[in-house]
Amino acid sequence: MTLTLVTSNDIHEESDQEESEVSEFPESDISSCSGLDPDYKPPKSSSSGEDFSSPDKGAPNLSNEDEDEDLNEDKQQDGKCTINKEKNSQSYIKRHNKKQQVNKRDKGKSVITIKTSTKREGFKRAWDKKHYCLYCSKAQSKISRHLERKHMDIKDVGYAFSFPLGSKERKVLLEQLRNKGDFRHNTDVLEKGSGQIITWKQPSVDASIKDYLPCPFCFGMFRKKDLWRHQSSCKTKQSCSKDRDDDQKNTRGRVQSRAACLLPIAASSDGCQKIINTMRQDDVSFHIRNDSLICKYGESLYGKHGRVRSRHQYIAQRMRELGRFMLVAKEMDNTVRGLEDLCAPARFQFVVNVAKRLTQFSPGKNEYGKPSTAVKIGFCLKGAVEVLIGQALMNDDDLSEKKAKKFFELLEKNWRNSVSITAHQTIQEKRWNKEDDIPLTKNVIALLEKELSKILTRIEIRGKRGKKVPVFLTERMKESNLI
Length: 483
Known about the structure:
This protein is mainly alpha-helical and 483 residues long. Helices cover 57% and strands 5% of the residues.
């Protein structure tokens, strides 16, 4: 095997060719050339002939000379040669700041998960479920043993363990204490907006907290669809007094509304809480519970119309409109958490886009699929911003007050041109395009026959009494071949 070396004169004469050859030449060959020939000494040349092996020259980007010399000596002994590049401080700072921003954004997110069943190798189930103590709020895998060792001096715990081992009463009482501890932990998680929910039965697949509600008797978390089935065989409910059973008769259809009363609500009065609990328990009502501004807006409406019971449905409709609006806003922007995040002048155009998407706006036809909803949303947003301004005034928060007032001015001036005018025009066009002719269905024909029979009976009564039949009736009857 022979090695060919390139001199400095050749480098100066054919610099373009040499640069391409060095770039295409693999690192292993370069290192072997410097390592196999111990007598080889590279010539001192200009910038075009940079030295790859000498530590004194050819490394302009090195900051510490002593460390670089030690590294280069070690690499020469191994028969390898590398180029050390200095780290760009600006790019490093940018990446570091970006990572910090991402971490802050992840910490600010409200993440509520549900404990799922885990499996080991061979699809064997891992019994790793832990329950939370009602008295010390600590997670325990053996909650009954923990209660017996640590909290035996408490009255309820001592009463439960007073029954013999394996008895039905002992199992029911210990289950109540276990479910109450888990329920307290679950309510804390819902109030904080982050944590893990402990359900009565662990799902095997990832589930959403929106699909679970607590039982009002045993306080265990069950799926909404299966809650009525559980209550029919709930041991705690069966062990309750007869008076409580009599109060809960004939209320099977309101199982979810009674269970929703146990969930925490962001900020509202007792009257507004009842309205929220009587709603349909779905994604919209779940968001309303966690959105403080929507709850306060509902509370202000309850202060105006709460005295009239028939207006409670109106209050629920206004709150649900804002709830549906916020669900669409969350789909379009993951950083949005509540209605207060959108009440800023810089977010006005985004609010308009959310309203158009919710009301099925078609830019080609310039019309709304749900024009009445577009008008109502503007009205509800104005009311919610007024509540936000009042809250900022009470808290003496000048910054949020200015933002809310500017956003309210935008709603007053630009919402009409952006949304309301086109929505009202769409409503009028739909009224004009309604067909005047009523389709002759079986029900319509039956109603017409009843009306004609009434007219004929009136005519017969008039004839018997010797009164004349009106002329217009006789003419119409002749036209319709009834006479």
